[in-house]
Amino acid sequence: MALNGGNIIWLLGLIGFGMFLPSEALALQVHGEPEGLYVHQMAHLFYIVALGYFFWDIRRIAFTDRGWRLLQLFCVLMACWNLLAFIGHLAGVYLDPQALLQTDCYLQTQLLSPFTFNKSLYFVTKLDHLIYVPALLCLFLGLRSFYRSAVSASSGGER
Amino acid sequence: MNGMGMSMLPTIVVDVAGSAANILLSFFSLWYAFRLTRLKPDNFLWGSLFYVTLAITAFALSRAVGHILKEFLFIAGKGELWQPIAPFSGGVNTLCMISVATVMIFYHKGVQAYEAIEQEAAKLKESKRRLTQTARELKELNLSLEDKVEARTAELSKSEKKFRHLFTASKDMVFFTDRNHLLLDMNASGSEMLGYSRHETSLLGLRDIFRHESDVATYARMLEIDGYLHDFEAEFRRKDGSVMYVLISATALYDEQGNIGGSEGIAKDLTRLKTMMEQLISSEKMASVGQMAAGIAHEINTPLGIIHGYAQLMLDDFDKDSEVRQNLEAIERQAQASCKIVADLLKYSRQTGSVRELVDLNDVVDDALAITEHNLSLSHIKVARELARDLPPVTGDPEKLRQVMVNLINNAHHAMEKTEVGRQLRIRTRWDMAEGKVVVEVQDNGHGIPEHIKARIFDPFFTTKPVGKGTGLGLSVSYGIVQEHGGSIAIESPIPGPANTLLQGTLFRLMLPMAMEPAALNE
User: Fold this and answer.
1) Does A54 contact B at CB distance below 8 Å?
2) In 3D, which of B491, B519, B486 has the Cα closest to residue B506?
3) A129 domain residue, yes or no
4) Is A40 inside any structural domain?
5) Residues 6+ apart with CB under 8 A from B82
6) 0.80 exceeded by the pTM?
7) Interface probe, candidates B9, B13, B29, B44, chain A, greatest A C-beta count within 10 A
8) Which of B117, B124, B235, B428 could be stapled to B441 by a disulfide with Cβ–Cβ 3.0 to 4.6 Å?
9) In angstroms, what separates the C-alpha of B155 from chain A's closest C-alpha?
10) A52 in a domain, yes or no?
11) For residue A11, is it within any domain?
């Protein structure tokens, strides 16, 4: 719908009404505590989608160099990590704060028994770097491979 | 792990160590991505990958720093300090994750654009390469064009010279026509054969030189159907009206639309060959007739002799003035005439005996003229003798050869009866050393022999003289005698004169093989 003179007057009138007659219903929306978690979880899902897209794109272009293979592996591992982190965040939410016991110091913190599925999941997902580090290693190796290929191509010919 | 629960220490260690490793690995990755962009600044792919890596590094750094800070604060027992930092760290992490995902998605679009640009660049590069190649070729062509043109011209000139020589030097007629069968070109031999000048032939068409219109139609139809014609026998009409028998091979010439635009052809003169064939056929025919005549003559010779003998015997029994005697004299006269015809027939069929000796044809000519000279002079015929000296002898029967000469002279005499003035008989003897033959030519300036009866004049009983004036055996008998002597008789009428002229009259050319050396003859 195009904005003409009449429409603009109506719009300004509506805004003015809201400004001069404030009430709870017309105030700015309040962002409660869970919103941060939701946004973060959505970001994980978005990241997974983007990695899938990136992975598909590499396959589409049919790059077969070692560097591209490693980049594909990075996508897979990173997507797994995102999934693990997503689950870990959920497990953290549902974990009873009493389940963790800190005695003398932080390093002696314990996850108290009985070990439920949620507690086990929480513990395992806390070890997410065991996936994250290999993923970044793949990225590093892949880029290094690209670089070396490019260097040899520069001395021998175009890639 | 003890009896109360499981230690979280491994997770803390993995978290701290992993975060540190992440910082290192992400920075190394970014370093290589950066180096790639430096190495190939114009490569869009590496540029995009650098931004992807940058976002990943930012996320890894944000997360790792937050995790390490948190862990160390908790270890230091100042966990409460982390509480205000945690939302910021989490927020930054979320932002970084969204950034990484966004960059990755836009990376794809960038790659697509890059691919399209690469393809266009490749096309441009290929076009440039072709242009360069074409420019180089053009330059080379330009440089060598003059040489090539010169070489090509020389080749064409050589080829043209070769075919021109074939065209001009051919002894057969070579001609080119347009679609309407008008002559475009004809070689000198063709013009000469037809008796036209080169200029005159350029104004002619096939309809002017073909004797029969139907032959032109056949020629055109065969070219149209087959595109060529091979060994097509036809008759041409010379400028002087005489007929020439030819064998034509021709090919159609097509224009760019595939229509017949003309033809090229070669015509071989078969007139001489055809005449020889006709003479051969005539010779065979006369041999057959001769055999038949010999049989008849042999059978009626005896009864005729008896009739003649008894008629002579009975003449003595009657008075001179009696009617019976007159009748008997008529019988005797006609029987004698019949005997002469039979004798001629026998001569023609070579049934009579003959002798073989060395004969000087000059003597034979002299003897024959001595016999006929009186009659010739009465008819005001001037005789020109051109007798060759040192003429080699021939082997034969002088009597029979004399008869041949008398026959030829009488024939010439009769042919000139209607010639008003300047009657001339020319008799020439010569020696054709190449052929090994002695030639006698008897030429008159009489009415000549029409073309259509030339092949028949040696046939027995063929005569153009009025009834009672000739038996039609003279030339037949002469022909038989000449054949018997291994010779031949040729006729020319009209007679080819000097400078391609034609003289009225007839020329009989008698050719007899010269005798062997006397020594060989004796053997």
Assistant:
1) yes
2) B491
3) yes
4) yes
5) B69, B70, B73, B74
6) no
7) B29
8) B428
9) 48
10) yes
11) no
